[in-house]
Write a sequence for this structure.
């Protein structure tokens, strides 16, 4: 299917968005855990632009183009982890009423969860690439 050529670039956009969070944004938050410091959902600099529509579109195309089951498994773990982080941890960073300790603890949780996302999306990309190169 010709849409399969878009799976890897879209997943790479999602991967690099998460990698940026992991090596730039989260260490800043760990060093200075200020309550309410996360930008608004659709504000300039918001990480949402790495996920809408690129991450979900890449995952949908991976399913539609029948990516290998191990790659789809990795993507399922990534999606579940990211949904949990965005719905459960992200609101803490936007809440100006929480303490610095709570923000720091949630930043540690985010770092580990986002690390899982980075690893599983990277694994999915490698598995899709390997499947595309192997003889049918």
């Amino acid at each position: 299917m010709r849409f399969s050529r878009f799976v890897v670039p879209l997943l790479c956009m999602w991967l690099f968005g998460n990698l940026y969070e992991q090596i730039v944004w989260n260490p800043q938050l760990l060093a200075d855990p200020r309550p309410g410091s996360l930008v608004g959902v659709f504000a300039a600099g918001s990480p949402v632009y790495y996920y809408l529509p690129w991450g979900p579109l890449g995952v949908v195309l991976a399913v539609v183009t029948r990516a290998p089951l191990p790659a789809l498994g990795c993507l399922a773990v990534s999606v579940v982890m990211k949904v949990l982080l965005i719905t459960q941890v992200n609101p803490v960073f936007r809440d100006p009423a929480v303490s610095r300790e709570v923000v720091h603890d949630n930043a540690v949780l985010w770092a580990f969860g986002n690390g899982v996302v980075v690893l599983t999306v990277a694994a999915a990309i490698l598995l899709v690439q390997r499947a595309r190169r192997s003889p049918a």
